[in-house]
Design brief:
single chain, alpha+beta, Endonuclease - Pi-scei, Chain A, domain 1, DNA Methylase, Chain A, domain 2, eight-stranded antiparallel sheet, seven-stranded mixed sheet, 16 helices, about 20% strand, disordered C terminus
Length: about 550
């Protein structure tokens, strides 16, 4: 099988095919994150890494069999201090009151969200996913390097370790631990506009509103649902699908996307997605959408895998893990910080060493307890190990090891990947495709083309026959994607003549090819095509669009 993989990550699709026992002749991957490429190549050295999808010429893959990929997902995240307590930024509404740098609460007058490039900024023990131009209230070092100057607004991309300290809501200073500006990816960014003070408290730190990435002001350059960087990335997948003519596809994205985006993607493929929660085949809650035309794709049965089944040691307080995301790499720090992230915000799965009841009671009474106070309870909380993270995604133990990547890079790559058991289940239909003789499957058409069940009458074709099918209509010469081919039946291998919808409809509205032969009084496809050509020449008003 020849596979084209976009946004390939750590080659979870290749691992799924390996489990199915499908021989992969070529696997061409488009991926730009170096750590993910290292892990993929370590497991599958024959992968052809091509880099940036925007630079690809997908017409070179016309003889490929399967297109897979999932462009960056639509996630949520950071916590805002409001009059009623902590609230996720995506849940802030116009009219809410949020705390500002002046220590008072002011009304939110606009909210918004868009897709943009983000990177990870770590201040003290707090992790942010921000755009490079979002202003933080921070102090730069003085010219003599001895101390720090007065606080000013500094864009996130310009904050540097040892050069700046960032100011929290209590005006305490926190050092910049890391700022991975060079390692950016696409995500949904949120912003709010606050009356009078124009600031708000995000994850305990002072930030400014209304930067140029914000779409808080309604009617001023707000992006539509099918535009922006995220849609451009999805459009590269669609471009690969159309330019290559690959007969089978599998596209994945986050189930939390908006209704408008889901409908736009469904319109592109011509059908609705399958919504599958990874908790059916793993120990992790992870809701994803899958658009595919692989035969017999369906929601898997529940395998009953529990979180307690996959941890190396310790105890857990739930049957299924929280969703493993890229940012879980930042789930580390003091005991009180881990408790706040896990128990207070559900922003990372914790594992307990000891009975967690006393530790939970301590956290409830004082969420800023010291590590010594935590240890006195006889219980500690820890992040999941890399092996446990691999198991959440149903990867083999050690899949990300040995590639020269750090712990954080490995967890980020795992969080960005697919749940392999889900992909293996969806790809089972490809086993029939890879047999020596297969029935040509029903394929969903692109919008604008009417699907004909005549696909089921094409008969048995070998892999070589399939790849050698003509790509143009035998009557009008119109270029065809295999999604659009209505008839390609042959009595002999050398007689393969696909006919476009318009030419078929001209003769009779969605009749069976055998009926067309009978009507024309011919026996073979070649004779039928010759007959159509003769009729077309006589009927001058016949136009193939």
């Amino acid at each position: 099988m020849r596979v084209l993989s976009l946004f390939d990550g750590i080659a979870c699709g290749h691992e799924a095919l390996r489990r199915l026992g499908i021989d992969v002749e070529r696997y061409v991957a488009y991926e730009i994150e170096n750590s993910a490429i290292k892990i993929a190549k370590k497991n599958f050295p024959d992968i052809e890494e091509r880099g940036d999808v925007f630079k690809a010429d997908f017409t070179e893959f016309k003889d490929f069999d399967l297109l897979i990929g999932g462009s960056p997902c639509f996630t949520k995240g950071h916590v805002i201090t409001t009059f009623t307590g902590l609230t996720n930024i995506e849940d802030i509404k116009v009219g809410d009151y949020v705390k500002t740098h002046n220590g008072r609460y002011r009304r939110v007058i606009a909210t918004g969200a868009k897709l943009a490039y983000v990177h990870e900024l770590v201040v003290g023990n707090v992790h942010f996913l921000v755009t490079a131009n979002h202003p933080f209230y921070a102090k730069p070092t003085t010219s003599d390097g001895v101390g720090y100057g007065d606080p000013i607004w500094i864009e996130a991309g310009d904050l540097r370790c040892n050069d700046h300290v960032v100011i929290d809501e209590n005006f305490k200073e926190h050092p910049v631990q890391s700022n991975e500006v060079a390692k950016s990816w696409v995500d949904v960014v949120y912003n709010i506009e606050v009356e009078e003070d124009h600031t708000y408290i995000c994850n305990g730190f002072i930030v400014h509103n209304c930067t140029n990435w914000s779409i808080a002001k309604a009617g001023h350059g707000r992006e539509t649902t099918n535009s922006g960087i995220g849609w451009e990335l999805f459009s590269q997948y669609v471009r690969a699908w159309k330019e290559s003519g690959v007969p089978y596809y599998l596209y994945e994205n986050n189930a939390s996307m908006s209704k408008e985006i889901r409908e736009a993607i469904s319109d592109t493929f011509g059908h609705a997605p399958l919504e599958i929660n990874s908790d059916l085949v793993s120990a992790q809650t992870r809701k994803r959408l899958y658009w595919t035309n692989i035969p017999k794709a369906c929601v898997p049965l529940d395998r009953g895998i529990k979180l307690s089944d996959i941890i190396e040691h310790g105890v857990v307080d739930r049957e299924k893990s929280l969703c493993l995301a890229r940012r879980y790499a930042g789930f580390q720090g003091t005991q009180s910080y881990l408790c706040r992230r896990y128990m207070g915000k559900s922003m990372g799965q914790g594992v307990f060493e000891g009975d967690p009841k006393a530790l939970k009671a301590l956290y409830k009474s004082n969420d800023r307890f010291t590590d010594d106070e935590g240890a006195a309870t006889g219980c500690t909380i820890r992040p999941m190990t890399v092996t446990e993270c691999e198991r959440l995604q149903t990867l083999p133990d050690g899949y990300t090891d040995g590639a020269g990547c750090s712990r954080s890079q490995r967890i980020e790559a795992i969080g960005n990947g697919w749940t392999v058991n889900v992909i293996t289940h969806l790809m089972q239909g490809m086993l029939e495709r890879e047999s020596s003789k297969v029935k040509f499957p029903d394929i969903k058409p692109e919008p604008g083309f009417v699907f004909s069940q005549r696909m089921a009458n094409i008969g048995c074709l070998t892999d070589e026959d399939f790849r050698n099918l003509p790509r143009t209509c035998s009557v009008c010469g119109k270029n065809l994607n295999f999604e659009h081919v209505i008839s390609a039946v042959a009595d002999a291998k050398e007689d393969l003549h696909p006919i476009c919808m318009d030419c078929e409809m001209y003769l009779k509205d969605r009749v069976k090819l055998c009926d067309m032969r009978s009507m024309a009084g011919v026996a073979t496809d070649k004779e039928l095509v010759d007959w159509i050509l003769k009729v077309s020449m006589k009927e001058k008003d016949h136009v193939c669009l």
